[in-house]
């Protein structure tokens, strides 16, 4: 008979795997040419270069074309419900901080139905990396305007053009106090690998917005190529005002690391409180004793 | 009821402070003096101000309900007299604040003025009126003054300066009664012999639940504040860090349940607690936990709804959403405790069921039992048993399939960190590997697999002490019930029995799946089945009807307050009157199955 549960903690040895080893047996169901392929390939490389063992890696997602991400990675995966990737990932990380936790999804998943969770993950500074594949459209539901779609987008659900101003995800994250903010482009894999790696190595919450075109419902390849360019060399990622300035520029979509700062992560902070509160030889019997008459 | 049981109600405006404290401290004094207490209270919907009442039933022996009439009303203001005076029984007592209210014309209720404002002024302690009242009550009931002092010190002694003032107030109330009320104590409550030495817990249902969760090995809690479930989070937020656990105040209920699911996915026992509106938000994720087969416990402390409804009033109206709330068929287990004490044992069952069947378990408490403070026997920790989750053995990684179909439908689970056990916990319909699959064959198979697991759980109800039978097992009239209605039902049955109207009762703490055979056996030969519950449509009654094709007498109360003993008793009488040959007992059943199969009242956790 078991009467108590011993907590499990894991020790991991650095892995020596090739990007291919992180491929699952499933071939992505994405349309040929979808930007998400580029993101996935960069992700394989980024985790391989960090020597993360597949059993230590947990990829969590919501719903969308991009939400299928975990299925294509040889790792632990949690495919949640629409919009809930961040709280699911927070639960995983807080229960087992020794795991490497990455959340992935689309612009609708992150900035519409799941937007309520974004500032809270930021404010907690949970040590997870959130890769948002932003195609400025709802791909899976076949092409409706998303919160990042430009004004005037004409689709079946907005036949006369949308009137809503798009969200600026990076500006939102910076304004919310995010400790790491960056932007990549699926067609610039080399930079994307480095960006994802840097995001994962950051201690705390990191938001990577990846421009990742939807060839089927909103082909923005040429557009993104035209208006995107690396952040100027003199941009200091420790300078929040400079980061905000470049994030506000919507005529040019700057790529690279916008902002980074170090502050205690949620699990570290909580662990410190735990260490403070810890009581030796204390359990249900002692707790009950406090309520005895 | 003889005069050794006392029902006292305290009413006033919460803005003047301390009405609930008055009741609670007094209840604790009685408990510490060796008596049994059972409390009920309302909380004002307003943040500051608004009428509140606290009721305590105090007796030498265990009490099961809040009682019918009031033996004593303590009115801090006129509103309390207007609201409750009519409930005071003939021969009862009214103590009223003579500085703020006028007593009704004398009509058989003894009235004692208590000039609370003057007394408070005399000791220069405006906010001391509640403690003065407690002092007065202690004298009126002949409770030991030193016990009162000890409780006040323990409960209110956090600030040293305040403590002296409080003790002064206590004395002042005590002295006032001593000097001005010449009669001897109208209720001298004498504890049972040796009762004071018996170990007794003084806790609320929410506290019992939180302790049960700790005993069950739960170490992760995420929740969003909501009355009347918040105490659970507050209790665990204090205790979990001391024992290595984690409490997160989430941004909303969807986040709360998602976090609990995420934690449990890694192997940590996890739960969330909420009330109706929060449960409504959680339904999508409950389906997700069913689909991904991740164990998780969701506590719903039911309150009156729909929508925001009446946050501080009781209801049992969330039964249907708990059993069925999700898109498509999403089988889960639903557990409901019956009392403050039972919260401890049933939440342990809830965790064990969740882990054993890898499923969400909904736990239906209610406002009444969650906030009520009661004296109960200490929890029997020897009965705590942990049913572990079935984990993958780590061998033959190539052949491992997370959702492999098995005879029981339960598939061994791997946890992040286990080498070779990688899989995706998939909310889409999937193959045994977890790979998404939409074929009709797979969906049919998996629907059956998920349903099969849950159906089996019914077999654990009797073994795990989730059935409670009482009353006369051979009675023609029966009551089948769930949840906190058990208190008044127990007392009503005693009363009816004393008058030659025997009743058999069965309470099931497993609401879904229903312990089919045991209930069928129990209702088989009954002439009538009364199903009392606190909701408008008779949600449990309809479940019983649908499940067993039997007509039942659905007794419903849906105003937001619990049943009284009398209401149940009247129904028993009414039902008996409709029977052709009322009091003749049927012959004893041939097989003496019932008694054996159904666990007795105290065996609430697994052996
Ligand atoms: C609660 C809920 N509402 C709606 C949907 C339908 N739905 C699925 S994905 C999606 C939007 C996906 O857009 P995005 O997050 O941008 O992902 P993409 O497909 O573009 O990668 C919607 C509305 C759903 N699955 N669940
Ligand atoms: S619909 Fe668009 S986003 Fe979805 S897979 Fe196809 S190209 Fe990619
Ligand atoms: Mg999108």
Total beta-strand segments of chain B: 22
Number of strands of chain A: 10
List ligands, each type once: thiamine diphosphate, iron/sulfur cluster, magnesium ion
Output the CATH class name of the largest domain in chain B.
Answer: Alpha Beta
Number of helices of chain B: 20
Termini separation of chain A (Å)? 31 Å
| Biggest sheet details of chain B | 8 strands, mixed
The CATH topology annotation of chain A reads as: Rossmann fold
Compute the CA-based radius of gyration of chain A. Answer: 21 Å
- Our measurement of the CA-to-CA distance between the termini of chain B, rounded to an integer number of angstroms, reads 37 Å
Shape by Cα distribution of chain B: globular
Helix content of chain B: 25-40%
Mean model confidence by pLDDT of chain B: 91
- The number of helices of chain A is 10
- CATH architecture verdict of the largest domain in chain B: 3-Layer(aba) Sandwich
Describe this structure in words.
The complex is a heterodimer of chains A (293) and B (607). Chain A starts with 34 loop residues before the first helix and ends with a helix. In chain A, the strands form two sheets. In chain A, strands 2-1-3-4-8-7-10-9 form an eight-stranded mixed sheet, with helices on both faces. Chain A has a two-stranded antiparallel ribbon with strand order 5-6. In chain A, helix 1 packs across helix 6 and helix 5 packs antiparallel against helix 8 (240-248). Chain A has helices at 35-49, 85-95, 107-113, 118-124, 169-175, 189-201, 221-227, 240-248, 266-277, 284-289; strands spanning 57-61, 76-79, 100-106, 129-134, 137-138, 144-145, 180-185, 206-211, 228-230, 253-260. Chain A has 293 residues and is of the alpha/beta class. Chain B is an alpha/beta fold and 607 residues long. Chain B has four domains: 6-197, 3-Layer(aba) Sandwich (Pyruvate-ferredoxin Oxidoreductase, domain 3); 202-383, Rossmann fold, CATH 3.40.50; 390-457, no CATH class; 466-597, 3-Layer(aba) Sandwich (Rossmann fold). Chain B is built from 20 helices and 22 strands. In chain B, the strands form four sheets. In chain B, strands 8, 9, 10, 11, 12, 13, 14 and 20 form an eight-stranded mixed sheet that branches. Chain B has a six-stranded mixed sheet with strand order 2-3-1-4-5-6, sandwiched between helices. Chain B has a five-stranded mixed sheet with strand order 17-19-18-21-22, with helices on both faces. In chain B, strand 10 (270-274), helix 10 and strand 11 form a beta-alpha-beta unit. Chain B is globular and about 85 Å long. Classes of the chains: A alpha/beta (293), B alpha/beta (607). Chains A and B meet through strand 2, helix 2, helix 9 and helix 10 of A and helix 1, strand 7, helix 7, helix 9 and helix 10 of B. Strand 2 (76-79) of chain A pairs parallel with strand 16 (424-426) of chain B. The complex binds thiamine diphosphate (TPP), iron/sulfur cluster (SF4) and magnesium ion (MG).
């Amino acid at each position: 008979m078991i009467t108590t549960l011993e907590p499990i903690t894991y020790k991991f040895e650095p892995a020596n795997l090739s990007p291919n080893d992180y491929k699952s047996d499933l071939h992505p169901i994405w349309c040929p040419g979808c930007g998400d392929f580029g993101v996935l390939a960069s992700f394989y490389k980024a985790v391989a270069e960090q020597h993360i063992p597949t059993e230590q890696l947990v990829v969590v997602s919501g719903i969308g074309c991009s939400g299928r991400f975990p299925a294509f990675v040889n790792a632990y995966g949690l495919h949640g419900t629409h919009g809930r990737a961040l709280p699911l990932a927070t639960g995983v990380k807080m229960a087992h901080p020794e795991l490497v936790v990455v959340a992935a999804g689309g612009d609708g998943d992150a900035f519409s139905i799941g937007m309520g969770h974004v500032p809270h993950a930021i404010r907690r500074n949970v040590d997870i990396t959130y890769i948002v594949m932003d195609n400025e459209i709802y791909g899976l539901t076949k092409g409706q305007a998303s919160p990042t779609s430009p004004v005037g987008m004409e689709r079946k659900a907005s036949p006369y053009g949308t009137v809503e101003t798009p969200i600026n995800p990076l500006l939102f994250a910076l304004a919310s106090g995010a400790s790491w903010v960056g932007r990549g482009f699926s067609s610039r894999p080399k930079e994307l690998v480095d960006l994802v790696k840097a995001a994962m190595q950051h201690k705390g919450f990191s938001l990577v917005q990846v421009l990742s075109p939807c060839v089927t419902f909103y082909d923005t390849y040429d557009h993104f190529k035209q208006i995107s360019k690396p952040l100027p060399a003199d941009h200091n990622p420790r300078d929040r005002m400079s980061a905000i300035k470049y994030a506000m520029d919507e005529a040019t979509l700057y790529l690279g690391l916008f902002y980074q700062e170090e502050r205690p992560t949620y699990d570290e902070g909580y662990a410190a409180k735990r260490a403070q509160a810890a009581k030796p030889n204390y359990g249900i019997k002692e707790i009950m004793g406090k309520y005895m008459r | 009821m003889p005069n050794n049981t006392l029902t006292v109600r305290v009413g006033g405006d919460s803005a003047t402070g301390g009405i609930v404290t008055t009741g609670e401290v007094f209840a604790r004094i009685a408990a510490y003096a060796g008596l049994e207490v059972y409390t009920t209270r309302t909380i004002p919907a307003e943040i500051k101000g608004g009428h509140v009442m606290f009721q305590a039933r105090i007796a030498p022996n265990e009490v099961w309900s809040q009682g019918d009439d009031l033996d004593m009303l303590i009115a801090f203001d006129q509103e309390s007299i207007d609201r409750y005076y009519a409930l005071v029984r003939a021969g009862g007592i009214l103590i009223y604040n003579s500085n703020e209210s006028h007593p009704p014309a004398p009509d058989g209720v003894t009235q004692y003025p208590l000039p609370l404002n003057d007394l408070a002024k005399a000791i220069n302690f405006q906010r001391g009126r509640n403690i003065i009242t407690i002092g007065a009550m202690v004298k009126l009931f002949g409770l030991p003054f030193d016990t009162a002092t000890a409780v006040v010190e323990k409960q209110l002694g956090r600030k040293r300066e305040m403590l002296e003032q409080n003790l002064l107030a206590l004395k002042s109330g005590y002295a006032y009664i001593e000097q001005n009320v010449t009669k001897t104590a109208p209720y001298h409550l004498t504890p049972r012999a040796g009762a004071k030495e018996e170990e007794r817990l003084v806790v609320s249902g929410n506290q019992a639940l939180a302790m049960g969760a700790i005993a069950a090995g739960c170490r992760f809690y995420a929740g969003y504040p909501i009355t009347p479930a918040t105490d659970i989070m507050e209790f665990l937020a204090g205790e979990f860090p001391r024992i290595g656990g984690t409490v997160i105040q989430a941004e909303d209920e969807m986040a709360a349940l998602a976090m609990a699911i995420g934690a449990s996915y890694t192997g940590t026992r996890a739960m969330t607690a909420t009330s109706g509106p929060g449960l409504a938000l959680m339904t999508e994720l409950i389906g997700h936990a069913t689909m991904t087969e991740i164990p998780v416990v969701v506590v719903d402390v039911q309150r009156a709804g729909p929508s925001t409804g009446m946050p501080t009033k009781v209801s049992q109206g969330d039964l249907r959403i708990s059993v069925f709330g999700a898109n498509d068929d999403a089988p889960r287990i639903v557990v409901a405790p019956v009392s403050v004490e039972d919260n401890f044992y049933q939440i342990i069952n809830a965790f064990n069921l969740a882990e054993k069947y890898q499923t969400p378990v909904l736990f239906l408490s209610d406002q009444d039992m969650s906030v009520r403070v009661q004296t109960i026997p200490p929890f029997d920790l020897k009965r705590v048993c942990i049913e572990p989750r079935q984990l993958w053995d780590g061998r033959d990684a190539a052949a491992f399939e997370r959702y492999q179909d098995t005879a029981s439908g339960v598939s061994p689970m791997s946890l992040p960190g286990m080498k070779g056990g990688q899989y995706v916990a998939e909310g889409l319909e999937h193959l045994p590997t977890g790979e998404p699959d939409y074929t009709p064959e797979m969906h049919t198979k998996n629907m059956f697999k998920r349903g099969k697991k849950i159906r089996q759980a019914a077999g654990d109800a009797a073994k795990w002490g989730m059935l409670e039978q009482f009353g006369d097992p051979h009675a023609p009239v029966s009551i089948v019930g769930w949840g906190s209605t058990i208190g008044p039902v127990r007392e009503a049955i005693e009363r009816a029995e004393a008058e030659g109207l025997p009743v058999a009762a069965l309470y099931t703490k497993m609401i879904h799946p229903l312990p089919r055979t045991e209930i069928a056996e129990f209702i088989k030969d009954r002439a009538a089945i009364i199903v009392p519950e606190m909701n408008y449509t008779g949600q449990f009654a309809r479940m019983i009807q649908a499940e067993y094709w039997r007509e039942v007498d659905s007794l419903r109360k849906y105003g937001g307050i619990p049943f009284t003993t009398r209401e149940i008793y009247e129904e028993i009488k009414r039902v008996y009157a409709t029977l052709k040959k009322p009091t003749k007992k049927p012959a004893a059943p041939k097989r003496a199955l019932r008694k054996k199969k159904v666990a007795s009242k105290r065996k609430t956790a697994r052996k």
